[in-house]
Design goal:
Elements (H helix, E strand, L loop, with lengths): L1 H11 L1 H8 L5 H25 L4 H18 L7 E2 L5 H8 L8 H24 L11 H24 L8 H10 L6 H20 L5 H16 L29 H30 L5 H17 L6 E2 L1 H9 L6 H16 L9 H15 L2 H10 L1 H17 L1 H21 L3 E6 L6 E3 L12 E6 L8 H15 L3 E5 L8 H16 L3 E5 L3 H10 L10 E2 L2 H10 L6
Parallel strand pairs: 5-6, 6-7, 7-8
Antiparallel strand pairs: 1-2, 3-4, 3-5
Helix pairs in contact: 1-2, 3-4, 3-13, 3-14, 3-15, 4-12, 4-14, 5-11, 6-11, 6-12, 7-8, 7-15, 7-17, 7-18, 9-10, 9-15, 11-12, 16-17, 17-18, 19-20
Length: 566
């Protein structure tokens, strides 16, 4: 019994299993990887906190809490969580409408509530084994959303890079104020930001041995302190509050719950989509198995922990995970080392980054936003499927014009519409045989394809259900009127379901065709669907002898019944 209980605990708290099976020889590799990781976690955490409209130090609180939470409940050995460039704008969009006077304490509490809600939603999905929700965003919609998000982030960070601020409420207003404020550009601030941008963009192309973000941030901080740039008007981070926060339950007002829950649903969708994709990619490279439901529980635990420690919602970072892996990480001990070093910074070295220029953080965010964007995918969509390009561009436009949270709604609506469109108005094709090619092929693609006289072979490429039953009937009627065949053979390989509405339609259509002297036959229908038609009672109308394993056997049987035409 105790062994069963222990196994159950390890299944839901994988960190216990890691601690029990940890090998001492991993310690050095995990420690080195944790040191390298911490060097990246600090500037990115601070930058993404400001992107979320929160004090920079909250990014460090978030980093510590989420790494510990995931180390306990997350199943992946190397996945790294933390503040993320794709999540922070959603946090900003969620909390700004709820802020009455722009109070930092209220903003932190709202962000904490949001993180806890995100965590509870993710834990609920994981316990309910509902990992499929991560598939709600199709690839083209996801690319479009991320492109729009990247453009929005860049435009929002440019004023900080140039040394001034704006108070815009939307993208177009932000763009307008950016253009109007160009004459307020601080030259020194711009030069520092441009230098950091150059290092972040160029150094990775020259070498992968030195983290570009570490070189850029340390260089900017040293230069700022040595040259006294703060006195020249360059805004800096300033000294961070010393110490780490004690856990508290974040709360503002009951009226904030519903808006934050809606925002949590959007953040969960974006976060899980990215997390499952990243986890799958790294697991495949390491020969590990992905546990999507436990990943959601681990993500949820990380978010709840962040919310309780004055943090905000987090997601998986592919770039930070890659750094950990390349640095030799063997387990989640790497994340714990990174979290410990960030805690040491807050406890004993809180003034270390006081001279870090704000423009450097803006540069970090801008480069992160560029990494979100995938313009090559748009060129590929243009070549292979223009409808995918159009959908991706609509998703981008939705994010830019309506906002990041509203953009998620547009993106999800597009994904659902795309799914229904493909099944509501599916492709159908008349088939024939082609010399030199096996099987049956569309006569539209192969106009010289041979067809059997008096027989139309028709392929329907979707499940038969209430939404497309009428279109199916319309197309079969059209073929019967236009071609006047004796038989219509329906190729059923792509038909994965027949619902009640479609079954009644088939019964009525068969009676109608029989009255006109046309018979229907079915080829390659799954045994499960044949049994379903039996339960529907369709064999009383559809002849059970007219179900064939292949098109060729159907044609042979039809021709055998017409010996006079040989």
């Amino acid at each position: 019994m105790s062994e069963t209980r222990s196994a159950r605990v390890e299944r839901w708290v994988p960190g216990v299993r890691v601690a029990r099976t940890y090998e001492r020889r991993w310690l050095r590799a995990d420690f080195v990887a944790g040191v390298v990781l911490a060097a990246i976690l600090v500037p990115q955490g601070m930058a993404y906190a400001e992107l979320a409209g929160l004090p920079a130090v909250t990014g460090l609180y978030t980093t510590i809490a989420c790494l510990v939470g995931y180390a306990l409940f997350g199943p992946s050995r190397v996945l790294v969580l933390g503040p993320d460039s794709s999540i922070s704008p959603l946090i900003l969009a969620a909390i700004v409408p709820l802020l009455a006077g722009g109070d930092a304490g209220t903003a932190i509490a709202l962000a904490g509530m949001l993180a806890v809600f995100v965590g509870l939603v993710e834990i609920g999905l994981g316990l309910g084994k509902l990992g499929f929700v991560a598939d709600l965003l199709s690839k083209e919609v996801q690319v479009g959303y991320m492109n729009g998000l990247g453009i929005t982030i860049i435009v929002g960070q440019l004023p900080k890079l140039l040394g001034f601020s704006t108070d815009a409420d939307n993208f177009l207003d932000e763009l307008k104020q950016l253009v109007q404020g160009l004459d307020r550009t601080d030259t020194t601030t711009l030069l520092v930001g441009a230098a950091v941008l150059a290092v972040l963009l160029v150094l990775p192309r020259l070498t992968s041995r030195m983290p570009a973000i570490l070189v850029a941030v340390v260089g900017a901080t040293v230069a700022s302190a040595a040259l006294g740039l703060a006195a020249e008007g360059v805004a800096t981070v300033g000294e961070l509050p010393q110490g780490v926060p004690t856990p508290t339950i974040p709360w503002t007002d009951a009226g904030d719950v519903i808006p934050l829950l809606l925002a949590a649903a959007g953040i969960t969708l974006v976060s899980l989509t990215d997390t499952i994709a990243t986890a799958t990619s790294f697991a495949a490279r390491r020969g590990d198995e992905v546990e999507p439901d436990q990943e959601m529980v681990g993500m949820g635990a990380a978010n709840v922990a962040a919310g309780l420690f004055q943090g905000f919602a987090v997601s998986t970072s592919g770039s930070r995970t890659a750094v950990a892996e390349q640095s030799g990480a063997k387990s989640q001990a790497t994340g714990l080392v990174g979290a410990g070093l960030v805690a040491v910074l807050l406890l004993f070295l809180s003034s270390l980054l006081a001279d870090l220029p704000q423009t450097a953080l803006a540069a970090v965010v801008i480069v992160a936003a560029l990494s979100l964007m995938d313009l090559e995918a748009l060129r590929r969509y243009r070549r292979v499927r223009k409808s995918a390009l159009a959908i991706s561009l609509v998703a981008t436009t939705g994010v830019i014009l309506f906002g990041v949270l509203e953009g998620i709604i547009v993106a999800v609506a597009l994904a659902i519409f795309l799914f229904f469109r493909r099944n509501w108005w599916p492709h159908g094709a008349v088939l024939g045989t082609v010399d030199g090619l096996d099987g049956w092929h569309s006569v539209r693609v192969h106009p010289d394809a041979r067809q059997t006289p008096g027989v139309v072979v028709y392929r329907w490429e979707a499940p038969l259900f209430f939404a497309n039953a009428g279109m199916f009937r319309q197309q079969i009627r059209h073929l019967a009127r236009e071609r006047r065949p004796d038989w219509i053979v329906l190729q059923c390989e792509a038909i994965t379901d027949v619902d009640v509405t479609a079954a009644e339609m088939l019964e009525q259509l068969d009676n109608e065709l029989n009255a006109a002297g046309v018979h229907m036959a079915f080829a390659e229908m799954r045994a499960r669907l044949q049994n379903l038609t039996l339960r529907y009672g369709l064999f009383e109308t559809l002849d059970r002898d007219h179900f064939y394993p292949t098109i060729d056997t159907a044609i042979a049987a039809i021709q055998a019944d017409r010996p006079d035409e040989e």
